[in-house]
Design brief:
heterotrimer, A alpha+beta, B alpha+beta, C alpha+beta, A: alpha+beta, Uridine Diphospho-n-acetylenolpyruvylglucosamine Reductase, domain 2, Enolase-like, domain 1, 5-stranded antiparallel β-sheet, 11 helices, C: alpha+beta, Aldehyde Oxidoreductase, domain 4, Aldehyde Oxidoreductase, domain 3
Chain lengths: 268, 157, 778
Amino acid sequence: MDTFTFKRAASVAEAVAAATAGVDAKFLAGGQTLLPVMKQGLAAPSDLVSLARVAAMQGIGVNGGMISIGAMMRHADVAAHGEIKALLPALSVLAGGIADPHVRNRGTIGGSLANNDPAADYPAAVLGLGATVVTDRRRIAADDFFQGMFTTALEAGELITRVEFPVPERAGYIKFPHPASRYALVGVMASKSAQGVRVAVTGAGACVFRATALEQALAKSFTPGALDGVAVGADDLTSDRAGSASYRAHLITVLAKRAVARALEVRS
Amino acid sequence: MTELSMTVNGVVRRAAAAPTVLLSTFLRESLKLTGTHVGCDTSQCGACTVIVDGRSIKSCTMLAVEADGAAITTIEGVAKSDGTLHPVQEAFRAHHALQCGFCTPGMVMASVALLAHTPNPTDAQVRHGLEGNMCRCTGYQNIVDAVLAASQSMKGA
Amino acid sequence: MTEHARFGKSQVRVEDQRFLTGQGRYIDDVNRPKQKHAAFVRSPHAHARVVTMDVSAARALPGVALIVTGAEWAARGFGPLPCRSPSKVNRDGTPFKEPTRHCLASDTVRYVGEPVAMVVAGTADEARRAADAVIVEYAELASVTDRAAALGDDAAQLWPEVPNNLCLDFEQGNRAAVEAAMATAKHVVRLDMGNNRLTAVPMEPRGAIADFDAATGQYTLVNCSQNIHANRDLMASMLKIDKAKLHHLAPDIGGGFGAKNSVYSEPVVMLYAASKVGCPIKWIADRTEAFLSDTHGRDQQSTVTLALDEHGKFLALHVDTVGNVGAACGTMGPFTPTGGTARTTGSVYAIPAILYTSKAVFTNTVQTDPYRGAGRPEAVFHVERIVEFAARTLGIDPVALRRQNLIKTEQLPYKTAVGLEIDCGDFPAVMERVLAMSDRPGYAARVATSRAKGLRRGFAVTPYLETSGGAPHEEARLAFRADGTVVLSVGTHSTGMGHETALAQIAADTLGIDLTRIRFVQADTDATSIGGGHGGSRGIEVGGSAVLKVARMVIEKARGIAAHLLNSHVDDITFKAGVLSDTKTGQSVALDAVIAAAGDTSRLPQDMSAGALDTTAKFERETYTVPNGAHACEVEVDPETGVIAVDKFWCVDDFGSVINPMLADGQVMGGIVQGLGQALLEEVVYDPQTGQLLTASLLEYALPRADHVPRMEIAFFEGAPTKRNPLGAKGSGEAGCCGATPVIVNAVLDALHEYGVRHIEMPLTSEKVWSAITGASA
């Protein structure tokens, strides 16, 4: 690993200032993606700004129909949180299915979203539930946040502090894991709320996306059967050894049906 | 180099480390706790699993400097100081849950952590709970049985 | 006379105490004062000429002590990496092709990851940085990585002296009889099938520490190897030194499965470098390096043809294989896809005519060499797939077809058409027992339950046989210390199998002493004069037999000493439960008293002196033993996604006499799960265009995890101990993956039968299964 300057921030302002001061600084949240990449020499930041002691990025709050999750909350925290389990079980299931228990004990929601790996789970949650990404300087709607492979709307030095999830009427998440890495080969979050139906797909393309054909069908009837015969085009999907684009396209519909079925099983 | 201090297996340990040093390297090389093994470089195999502030983590994917001030348990600190094995260790031995022993420290740490938050796991919960730990020798069944047995014996304790 | 040794007890392992408390000592836990670290410069290309190599920038980096280049290695005149393939002769009688492969390539690289230089520096990090700073200019050449493509006239040629990359053109069996049977048989069924390329992935990567003492000229190599003695001899020969000048030993080994058998480049270059820099040199592979440089396994493509008569009786079997040996011969060279697979072709079936033909080919990939089973799993896979396929094609119940064609007990001993001599066993009984375990009456209900969930359930049973024994010679030594410790030194090598317990059990039970008194020493050229290491499931049957022999020799000596102490005649002395007694006088003396006396010349007969009980035995096994058994399993397939879940697994094994059932169970389960890995998950993939290794990390190479694995129910058939060794034991280490791979594939195809799917190549990934279903029903 190439050397870097390690800084520990005590506040959001301090973190942002430290990151801005570095030539090529990066925030260090849980490090579960960043550190392996640095070990391989694929990233060599000048500075790492640890967020572990930033209090404003901690905690989970539930207020009316909104769940606010601190960006430094670990996947295990989200998976185990009682009110999330009760109000938005699809999110606990998603968080509890990321990687493995040890990674879930370190990895954070903010780190995952900022990285925007095309096969990560959390982007499907944020996009599929219409969440809002709160940063040190603004609020970014899910539909505006994810911009491409490992690319987000975040500006240089901009720090995710919290993520706010509106509680939907119903939601379900199904992940089809890659056999080796356990990232999502395809993952589908389907939700229904007053604002409408959302179906977000991760793993299948260069970036998480909404499956509009499926959303339109589900808007008419939020049932698995509504997706019978509704196909997702394979044109822009990923093809690799683990799955061709056509297989992924097929899985999207299958998993969306199962996600809807799960959403209907449990009260969101 | 930064002077780090952490409570490892109940003892305060201090050593200097560069910011790039991983916790696994710090434990193995600075503290000479070589029971923590490194079996891969992509955070998959879990041989390096240790418990930091009550949570199991992969020590190859955490900077030592991030563990400054933490309480850490490694495989060397699982048994009692008089040498009495932890129920999980005892169950691993009784159920032949290890062969080459290389994944074993990580498996034991993962199992201890698993039982701490799920004291009465099902077979499926144990398998899911061990998904971050690879074993190439045992076929896992004896490990699963050992964890289930340990959960019973710990109840009696 | 000695009492017949009694074993067969599940004994918890003595080695577990250190492994469970973090006190194991693996190669990366070993450090030497003043050690430096090595890193290797490896080829980034599958096939290229090395045009220039510039080490000046690397040499200038901090800490760099030495750089050994391929050119220097060649100039020093060291010997090439050896090939010890037992199969060396082409079908036309000419010798096979064995191109010269050196530890460091100098003029041409032939696979991604081939070492071209080694850097020694103060720290591992400095060595890595310096290795990265070595500038090599390559001229890329066309490459070929696929086994079948390599034979083509248009394929890239790896070696000028090897036309069509053909290393060995092998044939075994009776061609005329097979051709005659095929020409006239009522039914001839044929199926193409691959055995996917695998890598062993022991959880501990390879590594070594090399040291040299200039004062004595003595080299020491602490090596993560499972073949200490043989590789000591080979490495000494490569370095052109007296083998007595190379002390080779292994610490605890974190799994091997064959991948730590071969002679590798790295330790040899390190030994040379240690003599140059005058300090110990350490190297530990990272996981990526392990994927690139560990020997791989399997990688065979076969056309299997079975002839049957009108009643379903097997008449002839022909297996025609292309096997990928990699860029050059590994330590066992072309053996695995040739003689190694031929030996057990036909498995447990009475097939009057068998022909095994095989072409071993070079490709731009790392060497293949034995991986758990080394040809026997492939052979079982061939016959079990073709039998299943024949049953489906001809509309016969697969179980009935197997039952009909098994070698019957009354036919034993039986010599197969490829020359394997099966001495004992009861194949029908073993298969019926696994069928009885597998709850056939409840199957229909389970099928219905699965179907109600949208899943398809399938079942299969596959018997198997294999051969075990590995290297034929072994040594065991017992030495008695004044403090009561009994040192047991063996030439076999446990890399996790538990010999420290199982072999000690044999010694302790035979001598009638407590197991805790035994101190176990293995894998050390100073401890035994010879040693076969580990390979071919030989630990118990060969190593254990050597231990039994040496323990019995000790008792014979003890009888002589007891006779002296008791003033008796040696013929009157019997040994039982740790006590030597004179049957005439009733006087007795404990073995421990004899051991004590053996340390004191004054208390010994005139022809003995202190240390008289210390004994070394050499054991040579007869021909291979023939472990066998039958596996059965049920799978559930989700036809919408193609996902397979192995739901139930049963297995009955005939390992002859089982020394420690708990350890044998462990061997079987581990083998089954590696077999499951081959069937469903694992595959080493090189990019067919570039020759790059696409599965170079655990993010890409799928290993079975705890939740992939079904609950396995295992039973032993102990009705047929072999007479080929004094223990009656047959090896257990490789059996699991022989049976598991075909039984899982056959069960999946049973589940997919209604869709018209008749074959899917391994690994049976979900997409392949889904494509087969949609393709077949389209």
